[in-house]
Amino acid sequence: MAKNKKVAIFWRIALGLIVAATVVMLIFRVYEWYQERRAHFARYEAFGIEIPTRYSIHGIDVSRYQETIDWESVKAMNVEGLKLGFTFIKATEGLVNEDRYYKRNWKRAKEAGMARGAYHFFIATKNGKAQAEHFIKTVELGPGDLPPVLDVEATYGVPYKKVRERVKEWLVTVENYYGVRPIIYANVDFYQQVLKDEFDEYPLWVAHYLQKEKPRIYRNWHFWQYSEQGHVNGIFCRVDFNAFSGDSTEFKNLLFH
Q1: For this structure, is 153 an active site residue?
Q2: Backbone φ, ψ for residue 91 (5° rounding)
Q3: Does the annotation count 70 as an active-site position?
Q4: C-alpha angle with apex 43: 40 to 48, nearest 5 degrees?
Q5: What pLDDT, in 10s, does the model give residues 199-231?
Q6: CA-to-CA distance for 221 and 71, rounded, in angstroms?
Q7: Catalytic residue among 67, 98, 133, 153
Q8: Residues 177-187: tens digit of each pLDDT
Q9: Beta bridge pairs of residue 182
Q10: Which helix or strand (DSSP H or E) is residue 100 part of?
Q11: What 3-state class would DSSP assign to 211?
């Protein structure tokens, strides 16, 4: 009798937990739907920044800071013939962190017809290979995706030589897994002072906001983050804008096959 009572209590608790989990999931889905509808009505007459029109292919990069995004609105925005064609999406950071909006952004950006790429925010105090493995577990690339990106911005007090060693570990591990050479993201000063010329064979996505025509850097680059103050339909807050250095054929050749 006592045993049956314990079994009954167990099943009541289990049922209660299932119901509670279902309610929480439903609330989350409703909230996500509300946020997306709210983002749908974020509208701007223009991108809000000066666009370097000598480049024909432009895009944005996003993370959790942009919160819920209406990707259909992003893709559809057209200002005097200029549209956004690609996005870089934050996926991971360090050894364990995953951007809370990564999965949603990754799925919805593709559904909207945006070329997409995933990036890892590098923590220089951590092992490069272990960070690469975290990225690999999180990100699945398919045809039409941009190469993986390593976002390296700070040394956190680590000697420059050790930073370069760990960066190299990440790049080699990721290239061996995906079969494509990763892109390095860095600002001009960090690249020239810390990374130097040891990584010039890798595609570069460079951040530089002080010149209108092109970034001030000695080497070739593929992507240029030229502003962090842009506006896009479907996103409430400001967002980084980027340009691709080449034409549509060169862009397609860069995509994952």
Answers
A1: yes
A2: -110, -55
A3: no
A4: 135
A5: 999 999 999 998 888 999 999 999 999 999 999
A6: 27
A7: 153
A8: 999 999 999 99
A9: none
A10: none
A11: coil
